[in-house]
Amino acid sequence: MIFQERRQSAPSNNVISPATMQMDQLINVKKLLLPILRFKWRILAFTILVSALTVFVVLSITPTYRASSTLLIESEQAKAIKIDEVYGINSGQQEYYLTQFEIIKSRSIAERVFNDLDLINHPAFNRPPSWFSKLKSQLNFIPKEVASGDSIVNRDIAKHQLINSFAQSISISPVRKTQLAYISYESTDPKLAAQVANAVGDTYIISQLEAKLGMTQKANVWLGGRLEGLRLNLDQSEYRLEQFKLVNGLIDVEGVTALDAKELERLSDEITVARSRKAEADSFMAVVKRYGDTDISRLESLPEVTSHQSVQNVKREVVLVERKVSELQQVYGQKHPKMIAAQAELTTVQQNLHKQISRLVQGIEDEAQTTAQNLKALESQFNSAKTAYQNLSTKDIDYQRLLREVDTNRQLFDSFLARQKETAVTGDFDSPVARFTDRAVEPLSPEKPKKKMIVILAFMASLGFAIVLVLVLDSLNDTIKTSDDVEKILSQRSLGYVPKAKKGTSYEDINFAFFDTNLPLHAEAIRTIRTSLSLMAMGNKLSTIEVTSSTPNEGKTTTSMNIAFAYATMEKVLIIDADLRKSSLGMRFGLPTYQTGLANILSGTDSVDNCIVKEVRPNVDVMPAGAVPLNPQELLSSSQFDELLTILKTQYGKIIIDTPPVHAVSDALIIASLCDATVLVVKAGHTRSEAIKLTLAKLNQARAKVFGVVLNQFNVKDALQYQGDYGYYQAYGADSTIKDSVTKKSKANNKA
Questions:
Q1: Global confidence as pTM
Q2: Interhelix angle 337-426/190-248, nearest 10 degrees
């Protein structure tokens, strides 16, 4: 109804206002909270129960203590001498720390600590079996572990399992961006937790020192063994080198090789010079042979002659004398003594020039011969030196090979000797790879269980689980619970509801609740249903009213009776029990089982007057079902039933017909077409909506005039507390206390 009014008042452009959206959201939240508020005591009880069980379990758990020690792992270990090559450790790598953490957590460390502390005899590792183990031993269908018959093997297996469990209890937590690591151990014994946390660190340090010492000793032994072989190799190579030098007469191979190379270079240069001189002499002699050695004037013009120093000196004297003769000729005659002396001097000088030229030619010829002989000697000497140098080079190659072998053996020997000395020196240097910054102390409070936290979490978890479970069950519950569900889900009118009676109310009191002053809500609810029916039939005749339901036990008979009682206050009413298969109306009015009724009338075995019980209540007559017939459906579909209703309409203002459930049989569908109105009774929170929709579909198919739905056994208390619109009947006929409470709740709901 509320949503229909909103749709009518919405603007034509279908724009939803913000206020409407907020109201819809508020209604959705309220709908979500309703089941939580409805089952709040159950939720609270479940939460308290779970919390109490949690407290019991937590108190029964043996407390576990946790002790931690802080270990500093050195990144650069202190060394007397660097011997990284021996150990092969690169502490600059990040993997170094990860490796150390894994070593600390290794089973070997745990086993050493386990044995050193004699934990196999510690009470913490000799507890009696738990209740779960005892329960498992009692269950024969659970396969048991096959045990060996050897007691020693069984002890070893048990110890192995204890060590594994012990190792799993040790945890390593590195501190980010530092060289620190926390070593922690959990135990039920606080003293043992501290001992183990310290013992793990001590064992790790000792094991690393032992490993370092073992590597040093192994390296020392290995190096010592290798040194003897290297010494022998060095001695042998040196002996071979000395023998080679003695056999080949070598003292300083490098010096001799250098001298021979220089000698070859010198001879090569001298040969080149000799060849040049010989070539010059040969060319001059060739010219002399061509011009002849007597043609002095021709020889004098040769560059080889004119360039000679002695010839140039004589020619200089000839030039001076010729100049002198030329000067005297200008002064004296040819027969002058000075001219004669000058001519004699010129002749002497020219003869001297000819002698010098002849001597020079002879000298050059001799020099050519000498040069040829020298060149031949130099070439012979060069060939001999070259042969000797080649032989020496071959020896030098062998010598260098032997020398390299000696040097290599000496370097290996020196290197291993140095390493052996280093390992011998550093063997006793016990620099630890780690050290404690804080040793573990005996914890004063247990690490777990955190009892308060567990109880709080259990309370919150159980509360959340209960709320979620209620919401899930409520979402899965598709029954009709409120009048709003009738309108929204079934698309039917809600004629009203019949309140759920209080606990302890008798079956008879419920049947006649309309007359019970202790049930004022029931009377007012029935009057409301009567008013709704009257308003629905306004302008139309309303003589026969069929009351039916979808399934049995929804309260249709009780509702039929009380509706009849409500109409009886205004007119004469007849109640007909049309449930010919399983009648109960006569029994509720205290009539005998043999009382005749509708079946007798339709079968023609008795009259109408004998089948109607008069005045069971003021203005209320009853027509029971009568004898159970073999063919009830044929009787109800016969014309006699229609004629009977026509006759009864003249005698009664209202005829209330109680029919069987629609899903049980189709009798109600046959009767529906003969009635002026059909009322469907639905048990609140019991009948599923799909079943009710199917019932309505069948009634509509049978052309029934369904006026609406009546909710039976409606919980008014919950509706009054959470919805506020279902408790107003208490204002009529209730005491002042009830009125005040209803008024207060109504005001509170209006404010909300």
A1: 0.52
A2: 150
